[in-house]
Amino acid sequence: MTSRSTARPSGQPQASKICQFKLVLLGESAVGKSSLELRFVKGQFHEYQESVTGAAFLTQSVCLDDTTVKSEIWDTAGQERYHSLAPVYYRGAQAATVVHDSTHQETLARAKTWVKELQRQASPSIVIALAGNEADLANKRVAEYEEAQVCAEDDSLLFMETSAKTAKNVNDLFLAIAKKLPKSEPQDLGGAAGRSRGVDLHEQSQQNKSQCCST
Predict the structure, then answer these.
(1) Position 212 pLDDT exceeds 60
(2) Which of 35-39, 48-52, 76-80 has the lowest mean pLDDT?
(3) Does the pLDDT of residue 204 top 50, yes or no?
(4) What distances in angstroms separate CA 193 from CA 24, 40, 89, one per listed residue?
(5) Distance CA 95, CA 131 (A)
(6) Which pLDDT band, with edges at 50, 70 and 90, does 14 fall under?
(7) In a designed cystine with 205, which of 3, 43, 100, 109 is the match (CB 3.0 to 4.6 A)?
(8) Does the record bear Lipoprotein in its keywords (predicted)?
């Protein structure tokens, strides 16, 4: 696995602490989990994104004050036949983003099921965010913003409407999660899922760079 570092702008201080976390993306198939991940990590969007089988991960780092927060972002398959594998990936995760498609009502119901499962089986301290993706297709909306917001409020979740296509709120969502994570000692991402191979990418989009370690 190859790792490439990102140079810091001249005159910006080095972060004095590095915290590493595991974040898992959950949700029905084709709601845009992979697209959100790709938009955040590489600043890219592909109109036709191949579905994940099993799981895959990318890594991205953001800087908050004197702390570099490195997230290992696991994208899980949404097909029902892979559901039994999900606990392998969210076990030990410090954060989870549950994604639904605001143009398909049934995906919000499925997202609620994922939230309940995380609350029952994941770490009690896990940070959970709900993302209503496809916000650029407001004219096709069927899942009401208010319904998703109430769901998030009832379960004390972070909530944002996002669009991987236009990048709306994508960086803000992941930054909000990073801010809620405890900035203690670096976390161990070991275990079966942590040892799986993936693509290790440290390039930040230009927007992320402008937000990194600002003073």
Answers:
(1) no
(2) 48-52
(3) no
(4) 11, 21, 6
(5) 13
(6) low
(7) 43
(8) yes
Task: List Cβ neighbours of 33 (8 Å cut-off, separation of 6 or more).
Answer: 25, 26, 27, 52, 75, 76, 78, 97, 99
Number of residues in the chain: 215
The rounded distance, in Å, linking the Cα atoms of 178 and 204 is 15
Whether 131 and 23 have beta carbons less than 8 Å apart is answered as: no
pLDDT (average), residues 180-203: 48
Tokens of 106: 């049934």
Tokens of 33: 């989990």
Using CA atoms of 96, 152, 178, 180 in order, give the dihedral in degrees to the nearest 10: -120
Alpha helix (H) residue ranges in 19-144: 33-42, 86-90, 105-121
Phi, psi of 27 (to 5 degrees): 150, 170
Q: What is the pLDDT of residue 135?
A: 81
Q: Exposed/middle/buried for 149, CB within 10 Å: 0-12, 13-18, 19+? A: middle
